[in-house]
Design brief:
The complex is a heterodimer of chains A (96) and B (148).
Chain A: E1 5-10, H1 16-30, E2 36-41, E3 52-56, H2 57-63, E4 71-74, H3 80-94
Parallel strand pairs in A: 1-2, 1-3, 3-4
Chain B: E1 10-14, H1 19-32, H2 38-51, E2 56-58, E3 61-65, E4 76-86, E5 95-102, H3 110-120, H4 125-130, H5 135-143
Parallel strand pairs in B: 1-4, 3-5
Antiparallel strand pairs in B: 2-3, 4-5
The chains are: A alpha/beta (96), B alpha/beta (148).
């Protein structure tokens, strides 16, 4: 089965999105799970093939109505517990 | 200890009337060291005006940055604390720790940023950064994960 492809998005794809991808990679490793993670910027993220987008609340509004893939909102990029909960919840759905 | 943020790029207890000035003050050390041109600070401010306060990543902390561009001469990171917190219009307001990230491309700073993220993800780390009384104290806390 193909691995889920998780895109982490921020304004330019080089700041907070990198931090988020690292946190998600940590969650995957800790739970013995596998997924492809990538980063993107809010302007072009919808044309990057992926299964889900993880993004901050402020930026989510800009893509939510156009996104064909699920969009998961992260409130606090430094909260490992929130990120873990949302990643695991998404992967549960994906694997159904 | 590996230096993630240079001492010259750290300031504590600055006074900013609003978030724009806070970003300006956070970027100043990088201008002084010749790592960025003033245009980059304007770009960081404009990106918040255009995209919203998403740079406030966690309670009290903003990561100001813009896209890699010609006004970034060398990649660099600066860090300031504010005497009085400012509002960015984010759920994670108010902000009293502002980091400014300038990168020449999208990948060469990844390793440094990851190490900084590990420091910031420790519980209570932002509060401890904000409480730093001196540049030396803040320098130790951001560069030495065990100190934070």
């Amino acid at each position: 089965m193909a691995l889920p492809k998780i895109q982490c998005v921020c304004g330019f794809g080089c700041g907070s999105s990198l931090m988020l991808r690292m946190a998600i990679d940590d969650v995957l490793k800790k739970n013995g799970l596998e997924a492809d993670t990538l980063v993107g910027d809010v302007g072009t993220c919808l044309s990057n093939p992926c299964d889900v987008i993880f993004i901050s609340r402020d930026l989510a509004e800009r893509i939510a109505d156009r996104a064909e893939m699920p969009v998961v909102i992260i409130e606090n990029f430094m909260d490992n517990a929130e990120i873990e909960e949302k990643v695991l919840a998404y992967l549960n759905e994906f694997n159904k | 200890m590996e230096e993630l943020v240079k001492k010259d790029h750290i300031r504590v207890g600055l006074e900013a009337p609003d978030w724009k000035e806070a970003i300006q003050l956070a970027g100043d050390p990088l201008i002084e060291s010749g790592d960025i041109e003033k245009q980059y600070i304007d770009d960081m401010i404009r990106s918040v005006e255009e995209l919203g306060p998403y740079i406030v990543l966690t309670r009290g902390f903003a990561l100001a940055h813009s896209a890699p561009c010609p006004s970034v001469i060398h990649s660099g990171i600066s860090l300031i604390t504010l005497k009085d917190p400012v509002e960015f219009g984010s759920n994670n307001d108010p902000v009293n720790v502002v980091m400014c990230l300038a990168c020449v491309d999208k990948t060469s700073h990844i390793e440094t940023l990851q190490k900084i993220a590990r420091v910031l993800m420790q519980k209570g780390s932002i509060e401890r950064l904000a409480e730093s009384k001196t540049v030396e104290e803040l320098y130790q806390r951001i560069n030495n994960a065990e100190e934070v």
